[in-house]
Structures are given as structure tokens and as C-alpha cells.
Amino acid sequence: MYGSTLGNIFRVSTWGESHGKGIGVIIDGCPAGLPLSEEDIQEYLNRRKPGQSRYTTKRQEDDAVEILSGVFEGKTTGTPISLMVHNKDQRSKDYSEIAQYYRPGHADLNYDIKYGFRDYRGGGRSSGRETIGRVAAGAVASKLLKELGISVCAYTSAIGPVTINPNNFNKEEIQKNPLYMPDAQAAEKAQNYLEQCMKECNSSGGMVECIISGVPAGIGEPAFEKLDAALAKAIFSIGAVKGFEIGDGMNASRSTGLQNNDGYCIDENGCRQKHSNHSGGITGGMSDGCDIVFRAAFKPTPSIAAPQKTVNRQGENIEIEIHGRHDPIIVPRAVVVVESMAALVILDFMLASMTTRLDKIKEFFQK
Amino acid sequence: MYGSTLGNIFRVSTWGESHGKGIGVIIDGCPAGLPLSEEDIQEYLNRRKPGQSRYTTKRQEDDAVEILSGVFEGKTTGTPISLMVHNKDQRSKDYSEIAQYYRPGHADLNYDIKYGFRDYRGGGRSSGRETIGRVAAGAVASKLLKELGISVCAYTSAIGPVTINPNNFNKEEIQKNPLYMPDAQAAEKAQNYLEQCMKECNSSGGMVECIISGVPAGIGEPAFEKLDAALAKAIFSIGAVKGFEIGDGMNASRSTGLQNNDGYCIDENGCRQKHSNHSGGITGGMSDGCDIVFRAAFKPTPSIAAPQKTVNRQGENIEIEIHGRHDPIIVPRAVVVVESMAALVILDFMLASMTTRLDKIKEFFQK
Amino acid sequence: MYGSTLGNIFRVSTWGESHGKGIGVIIDGCPAGLPLSEEDIQEYLNRRKPGQSRYTTKRQEDDAVEILSGVFEGKTTGTPISLMVHNKDQRSKDYSEIAQYYRPGHADLNYDIKYGFRDYRGGGRSSGRETIGRVAAGAVASKLLKELGISVCAYTSAIGPVTINPNNFNKEEIQKNPLYMPDAQAAEKAQNYLEQCMKECNSSGGMVECIISGVPAGIGEPAFEKLDAALAKAIFSIGAVKGFEIGDGMNASRSTGLQNNDGYCIDENGCRQKHSNHSGGITGGMSDGCDIVFRAAFKPTPSIAAPQKTVNRQGENIEIEIHGRHDPIIVPRAVVVVESMAALVILDFMLASMTTRLDKIKEFFQK
Amino acid sequence: MYGSTLGNIFRVSTWGESHGKGIGVIIDGCPAGLPLSEEDIQEYLNRRKPGQSRYTTKRQEDDAVEILSGVFEGKTTGTPISLMVHNKDQRSKDYSEIAQYYRPGHADLNYDIKYGFRDYRGGGRSSGRETIGRVAAGAVASKLLKELGISVCAYTSAIGPVTINPNNFNKEEIQKNPLYMPDAQAAEKAQNYLEQCMKECNSSGGMVECIISGVPAGIGEPAFEKLDAALAKAIFSIGAVKGFEIGDGMNASRSTGLQNNDGYCIDENGCRQKHSNHSGGITGGMSDGCDIVFRAAFKPTPSIAAPQKTVNRQGENIEIEIHGRHDPIIVPRAVVVVESMAALVILDFMLASMTTRLDKIKEFFQK
């Protein structure tokens, strides 16, 4: 089945493998008239680029993006935008060995069964490099959302057992430490924890949190196309995500109605507000006008240098050590991927919401 | 935007409101030749029917299903299957009051903003009754999956703070207690907890777990159409779900690679197995041949009789008490909804997997 | 494969067979706030109802429509609209004979091969009664289009060899003769021709023309989603259509650039006009602001009482005569079906066009 | 709206403009295991390449295709196939003049209204160069169809008033004359006709016919997804197509049931056959096992050097002559585009047909 397209109106299709000629994305349905340059996109790609710190793979890639179509005289034309990054530092021979066995925590075996064989070079289509297309498209979506007064901000909220302290939350800090944590103290502790993991040839899981501000109420649909459902799918489509929650999330299951309900009130300025935001900004699948807040749990990088037991293609039990250029933690580079996926979903649903009311449609066409 | 259709190949579209003439569903893309009767479907609907216990609404509904099309001489014909349940015990006047204000934890305000007005009778399209269509379709999907050797089993794993003990797990028990818990002791504790909630005019959240057995490896797609992503969306599209996790789920974020990786081994019979199932049966977005295990967190029923603060349509701060026929907990009746949604996703992806390999396609058409 | 859904934003899904319990349609994505009653829809259904004249089947059906959901206090709510017509005069035994053989010009054999068996009662899903759902949905789309200043008008332009004379064109005449022709003289000749066909136990083909007025320029997309391409598919999805053309149509292939190009000019009022409309209102897949004009060719009714040669299910050559309640010509009752399909496509594309320009999107959300 | 994707299972998305950096296509959903090289694709692209004869534009382009992803060790992997052709001979300044006015027969004005401005270089997204992506994808689909025993063959059946004589039909001849006509005599006459057009700075329309052999019965769906409807849309999505017909086509409207019905018979070998093929191989929207035969009418090239009246952006009446590098007829180069679009549709529907019958699905998964 096709499976590389996201979105109903602002449609994004990614292509490319870890060790092929490049990675790319087509955006179909981008409105005309958005000023767009390669720099706009590069800024986002640089946040997921390898080699930013000692916690990321040593693979050398500029990830320099090229706009191949859909932009004319500095503005989007309304026709498909094709974006591409060339792979440069692919070293396929690193992978000749892993072609012979099934790595624990990877999808190697699933590929072999599904397709009859697999592109064993660096995870092929399951490589983290596939997310380049998502981030490039996410940069475009984010720029468009800004024009509509909407901002999306993701950050690392936990690395292994180290979690941020909400009291120390400082948005400025996010871009200052290599782990993209909004709490300098937690970031230091997390780095110590990672050093220990690396010494043990091990890896760590972590958590990404995301806050979306400025979304008007009423975005999202009542039944299957709930806004939180679409966010859940988009975030779960990022490799290594094992859990997704919104607002109080898993804790809501241990709560009561009196605790969990967000009542409305009229504040001193006569504005309608919610007392609290246990819902995380979405009720009944529709935005309620408050900040949308969600979290995603990432599993630890499966490629580790410590010895592991598994089987080879000949059906023999073997022990392996996976050397090569792997991140000891996926989370810091995944932050911008989460932000991008959220932006893509929110934009797509904003556009979809324009056809909901006859009064507004008539007004639109009467001008 | 349209938002009432689920699935790419086995496509399900629901319609109907809480207090309209009825609730229904169309299944388009159901393979021809499946024996199907109204009894097959009724069995599933009875598990979500109101009035099963003192923990469910007192609204009286048979929820008797009628097959309107797509079945001829007891078998599906391959054309759209239309299923309908008539609403019988709608008492719209119960709701004349709530038309005037915005209930905390409900989507009332979102509807008003999105559509300009709302069907205020019993939640309209956001009513739990919308899930009748999902369960009716899920019954058909489940029957078809059985023909392919696949079973789906959901149950309540927690009610408020009361969780099942894995050591007491007994599948037979699920259908024996009104809470659909696979642990008789936990079920008793949970009932006591609910009694307390009801006394306080309060409600409780809870957790549903689901196990899918028999899915071959390789189902699901690498990028956006990961099997776990599709499950996440489908489950999150059920009203009141606030969290979704698969396998180790949120805990994976606190784990390490050595702990979390599932190594393969060859067992004494020469069969390939996984040492463990931290992945919950899906790796890289594709099934890995093991049981698929996921959990969903449900928030507490928002309609409670205890006094709550909110605002009315005139923009005044008010205090309300919501009387009427509401479940003190959503979870037990949601169990079969979770099971149905899982069945719909798995079947849809199974069918999609048939076009993945040229060798199998050639074989298919050569006969 | 699913195949009963039309449209991207205004989505229509039909269900039901000729001799099942009924026929219906769900509209998902209809904007909220459209005043809608059963009478609005019935008016359209009456135009395709059987028994209007001696040129239509004698099957007795009121085709009385019921609105089952999606309308509250006389207005659409924005949620799925479910519409249903009960079958009343199904006489399945009429068809016990045709279960045994393959009717020339029908899809009987295709069904048997595709699905393994077929619902042989009156064409099953291929019956003309399937168009009830299309017309019911088309009535809703037409009402909404009227609010946007757009009208759709179809009529019979030829019956067998009898074509209308453009000089006699009279829109008022369309609803006055049983053949829905806008030329009273041609209508009379056509009736004589049909009498002859009926005497010979034969049937006739014909042509439907459709004019859509008021569509602004720029509706439709450049590549695969051209407006004329979408119209072509929608019209070709009506059973018995064998040809579709727009503007000069097939004749354009025999024309030259100098003849076929529609130049622009500024008229005496300073308005931009086209000199001519060879394009039929669509250029480059987008509406150009002029009337959209297309034609569809219908084959003759395949069910005829004259003797025909064919084979039975046992693989024997046989001769048959098909008696029963069949229209000697499909075209007059197809007029409203063509009109409905055109309305569905135009509305869907109008709604889609709202997300094309950033300047208009910003304006939309700033209010 | 997005509009650059075709297909449900074998999904093709094109991108690129006439004078941008290049033109490309992504194929998502191509089964794994198909041997595929750049040569396989180049062969098809060469048939639509400019500069093949004096009847095609003098723009110099190799149209050399590059496979960027989805192929590993010479076989498709089942993941997205990205194909690209770099533009080389774009001379944008040729177009600085046409930026100022609206060319008759072109979509210039529609673009300006739809998007607020346009990429005026060579037709932008409406350029014939957009079909490069279609042909590249069509080459892949055709190769896959061959593995399933299906062939698609298109050719020019008329140029202006010159039509092929069925008695002279010679398939071998198609690739021998620059007009891709299967009748050498007609090809010569057509060339004379074109010389005359060129002398008059005029252009000609024409007709393409296509025969698809080997499609089993039962491909296509009963209601909206009829196989002929999908073909109609795909072919109508090629720029300049104004009419589409299948089998007897427009003539069926002038026919009677006795003439038009295709009866079945058992031939001397005991095989079931159709007496005739008025249906063109599709009945009730499903293939009937016979050759599928359709025709498309193309309008004349709108860009002509003869003087024409139109208006400029300032709203003034002007007279223009369009010089530059334009084909005097679109049809010969469109032949391979028609063939490609037909292959894409047939393959997509073949794959979709695999999920129609439960007996075959069970058999598929039991192996």
C-alpha cells in the first residue's frame, strides 16, 4: 500500500532512503502567495542535522535543501513544491554485515517478510533520514501558520529518568543546550545520564512535549477525524514513538469528573476562559481555543554496541555488536520532527475548517 | 470537512445523532462471500447497549440492528452494506436546559463556534451512540478476521486507581463481570470504587487494554501509514480517549536499548521467536508476528450531578448540576468499541498488504 | 474495492440495490446552516421516478425520501446527512429466470466473475435505482449552489437520430414534455421514433446536454484534478454512458487553432469577455467564467423483448426474450441524474477552491 | 486543492513546471520485486521527447530520467520511487512578453484569478512538460502490466479531417511514421495537411485511439469507480482533451438495443465469447474480458503565429502573434501520454480487484 502521504488538503509525500541518492518531499495543496526561500527551510533542517553534538551520529551531512518547483519570484505558486536534499556521506559498506542478520528493535525481519527482500543499507526507508522530508515540509507549514497567528513549540521533556521541572521552564533555554530541554538544570543531569549510557554502549529513551498556541476553537471533526486523533497518528508515524497523550493524558484514567472537567468562566475583562486545561486544548476532537499540549514517548535507539543475541538469515542463533554511527538517544533530533508533524496536521485541519459553515462560504465567494 | 469515514479499502462511514431517527453505518469494500446475519452483529451491539448494569445509563434502547443492503442469500455481495439502528427512547426535552449553557468537559462551545449552532439534544453527533455504527461495522470486520485466523480481545485494565493484576488474568472472566475486567478481584474493588463515585455525584476514568493475535509479520507501512499510527488514530477517535500506548508505551521513554530491544532466537522446534515483546508486536510501523498489545486511557464521564461552575450563552457565570441518564464511567461500554476499532484497522491493513509483492500478485492472477 | 463514494470535501456515499429494502445516501461534509426539507429533495426525485410517462418502467414506486440525520430545526448541522427511500414494488420473482443466463448488454457475467456470485434481482447494485442516492444528494448540492449563484440545467438533446434544433431552444419547454427536451417539435418527432422502437420490442439511445451558469473563473486544478476530468468521471459513472464531451468536444479534433481559440475582448461596458465559447467554459482544467457546457451519450436500454442470442450459466447457447418492466429509453429519467452529478462535482470543487490563495485564507481567519 | 496525485493503490504524484529546475514524479505503492532500470523508463520518455520531427517543438531536451529512490539492486523495493528529469533548454525570456497578456485557448487568465498571479514561463504547470512525470510512471506501470499479461497500445487515429482506414490498420506502422499512425497512407495525407496548417501559421486537432488487451473480466467497480469512468477522468486530465468515448461511444446514442447489445456465445472450442464489442470491453463499469477500446479528441495547439485578438492585463484590446517553439499539433507526442495514463488506471484497478472475494483472500493468506 502507498503510505508516504500525509494530509487531506495540505498534502505531503516523502521519498528516499538512508543510502540512496537523496531524500525529498512534495507538498501539494500549498496555498499560493507564501514568501518562501531555501533559508526558511534550512533553518528547520539544521535543527535535525547530524553532528550537532556528541549525542548525535557522526555521519557528515549538510542536509542542504533545494527547491525544485512550486516557487516563482520568491513566492509559492499554488502548484506542487518539490524539495530535495542530496545524501553525501552514505557508506553502504558499513552495512554489508547487517544484511546477514536481524537487528533487535529494528524492522529488518518485517521488511524481508513484507517485500521479499530489503534495502539493508542503514535502515533504508525506516532510517531517521526519512524525517528530512517531514521537517522540510513542516518548515513550510510553520511559516504559513505564523501568518495565521499560530505557533508550534516542541522540546525535550525527559531523557530516561531525568524530567524537566515545570518551575524551571524557560523557553529561551530550549535552543541553548544540545538536548533541546527548556530547563538548564535538567539538561545537565540528562547529559550526565547519557554519558553513562554511552560508556555502557547502551542508549536511552525520552519524551518530547509540544505546545501549540493560537489555534481558534472548532478545528477538528466530531467522529473519526478528531484533531487529537490526527495528531496521535502523525506523531506515532515517527519511528520509535511508543506512546502519545494529550492534556492530562494517561493520568486522566485515574482522575474523576470533578477533577478533570475544565469549567468555563467570564474573566474580569468579560472574556470567556477555561478555569483549567486538563483537556490539553481539545475536547470532542475539536480545539477549544486554549493551548494544545501533547507528549510523545520515544523508545531508546535500538542500535547499540553492547553485545546482543539474535538470529541470522540462515536461521542460526548468533551474538552481535552494532558498531557504526548511531545516536545514543533519538529525542533531541526528534524535537523538530515532532514540531513539524504537529504543524502539518494543524495547518491541514485549519484549511479543512474553511468549508464548515454556509454563512462564511457565502461571504467568501461574494467578494 | 467530512470526518465520518474510516479505512482505505474496508471503508466504514457512520451517521446519526443521539436524538435523531437512528444511527447507522455503511461498509464499502467488504469482500464478497462472507456469511453474515443480523445476529452476528447484534451480539457485538449488545455488549455496548445501555442498561446492562447499574454502571450504565438508564436510557432504554434495544439497539436492534437491521441489514438494509449488501447481503443476499445470507452472504455479503461485495457492494455497500448498510446497517441501521432506530433510536427509540430519545427524550429531547431532557436537554432543553443544556441548550442554554456550555457543559464543562463537553464540546458544546466548540460546536457553536465551528458550525454556528448545535444540535443540543444529548451531545448530538458527539454522543456515545455514534459508536453504534463503529461496533456494527467492527462485528463484520471481526467475523472476517476470524476467517483469516485473527482474533481481537479488549478488556478493562483499570478503573480509576484500581488496576488488574496480571497474575490474576483470566480471559473467561471478562464477560462475567459488568466491568469487563479479566480479574475478578479487581472487578470487585473497582465496583466499590464506582459506588463511592456515584454517591459523590462524581465519575471515574479508566483504562482499556487490547490484544490482537494471529496477525502475520509485515502488516503496516514504513512511513505515515504505520500500523501503530493507524491504531493510535482509530482509538483516539473514540470520545474521551486521552492517551494511547503500545507495548512498553510511555515506559519505553525511561528504558534503555539493552532493556527495550526484543532479540530474536531460534527455539527448540527450529522456529524463530522473539525473546520478549517490549515492542507490543509492532516495529518500524509493521507487525512483527507477535501479539499486538495496546492500551487506551479514558477520561471520566464529564456529565456529573455534582455542582460545577461554567458560563451560559449569554456570557454569564453560572453554577449547574447535570442530571439525566449518564454512565458514571465510560470504560466498560467502551471495551467493545475499542475492540471494534482495532478490528477495523487490522482488517483494512491486511487487505492493503495484498498488493505489496509482485511475486504474490502474479500468483494471484495466474489462477 | 470501495467504489460508492464521490467527492473530496462534499462527500457522497450511496448504498442499496434494486430489490433490497431500500436505497440511500450519506452526505458527509455538507456545510452547516443550509435550510433543508424533505420536499427540497423530493422535487428532484420526482423527476427520475418511474411511471411518469409511457416511456418509463411501470414499476410503482413513490420514491419518498426520509431525512434520517444531519438536519436539526430545518437546517443542516454540518454532520452526516443520511437520506433513504424504501423500495416498495420489488417483485423478485420476475428475475428468477434471468438468474440462469447472462443478459447481453448487462454486467451479469462480470459480477459472477468479480464476486463469485451475484444478486440477480433486477440488476442489483447496477440497477438504475442506485441513482436515487445520487439525485437525493444532488438536490442538496443544487440548493447549496443556488445560494452561491450557480445554476445547473440538463435536458435531452437527442433521442436516437432525433436531435434538438438550437434555434428552437426553449428552456421552459424542458419540464413540459415527457422526454425533457427543450424543443417541442423535436420532442414530438422523438416520441414517434420511440413508439416505433417499442413496437419492434427494441430500445433507443440518446444524448443529454448540461449547462452550468455562474461558476467563477479558476475552479478546478491544473494536473489530474481538472474540472472537466472530474465531470467526465462523474458523468461516466452513470450506467449506460458511452461518451462525454465538453464545448466543441469531438469536433475539436477536426478543428484548427484559428477556429477553436476563444479570444478575449473588452466589451462596451469595459468588461472582459470571450469572443466565443469553443472551450465549453473550461480551459486548462479550470473554469474560465463562461457557461460550462457538456454532453453525454447514453446507449440504448439493453433489456429488450425482442429475441436475442446469449449463453446460460451452464455454458449453453440459448435464445432469450427479456420481458418485465423496462424503460424503452434511459435518457429522459437520466436528465436529472446528469444534473445531480454535475452539481455534486461543481460544489465539491467550489469548496476546494477556498484554500488556494494565502491572501484570502488570512482574510477568512482574521474575521 | 491538491490535484497532482492519481490512483488509489498505485499512486502517482507529479511535480514541476516548464521552466523550473526539472520535472518529476513519485510512485507510491509500487509492488516490490519488479526489475526496473532507467532504460525501461527512457524508452517511453523518448516517444514524447521534443525534436523528433518537424511537427514538434524545437526546444532541445534529452529528457534523461534519473531514478532517485525506491530501486535497490535493480528491483523495486516497495517504497516510493522518485523519478526526475532536469530541464535544460528553458529560455524564460521567450516568455517575458506573454506575461503581459492573456493568450486565447490558454489558461493564463484562470491562473491569475485562481492564484493571484502566475508562473508565466511557458505555461508553468499547464505545460506539456508536466506529462513527463506521467509517462515516466506509465512506463513503470506498463512494465508491471506486462508481467500480468496485459498490453496497452495507443496511436493517432485522426489528424484534423484525415482519419485512419481500419482496413489499412497495421500495428507495426505506428512507430514508423512521425505521426504514430497505424496506416501509412493516412499518415502521408495527414503530413500534407499539417504542412498546409504550418504554412498558414495555424495548428490542427486530432484523435488518439487506445486498445488494452488481456484485462480479465470483473475489473472496475459498480457505482462511482467504474473502470470507464476512471479512464475518462485520467484521459481528460491530459491538457487539450475535449472528448472521450469508449466502444461505440457517441454513436451509441444513435443506436438501438438490438444493434448495440453484445450477445454471448459458446465458440467451437467451448469458450465463451462475445458476438461483438460495441461496449468497448467495459459493461456496467467492469471489464468484460474483451479488448478495451477508447478514443480521445484533442483540440488544436492554441499557440499559433497567426494574428489573434485578445486583451492585456491592463484591460486593453490588442492583437498578438505567438512566436516561439510550439508543436503545430499535440497529438503525436500525446500518444504515449494516453498510453501511460491508461496503464496507470488499469494497473491501479487490477491491484484494487485483489480484495473483492473472500475465497481468494483466504487462499492468499493461507500460503
UniProtKB/TrEMBL annotation, chains A, B, C, D:
Cofactors named for this entry: FMNH2
UniProt binding sites for NADP(+): 48, 54
Transmembrane intervals: none
SUPFAM superfamilies, alphabetized: Chorismate synthase, AroC
Amino-acid positions noted as binding FMN in the UniProt annotation, renumbered to this chain: 125-127, 284, 299-303, 325
Pfam families (UniProt xref): Chorismate_synt
GO biological process, one term: aromatic amino acid family biosynthetic process
Function: This reaction introduces a second double bond into the aromatic ring system.
Family from the record: Belongs to the chorismate synthase family.
Name this protein carries in UniProt: Chorismate synthase
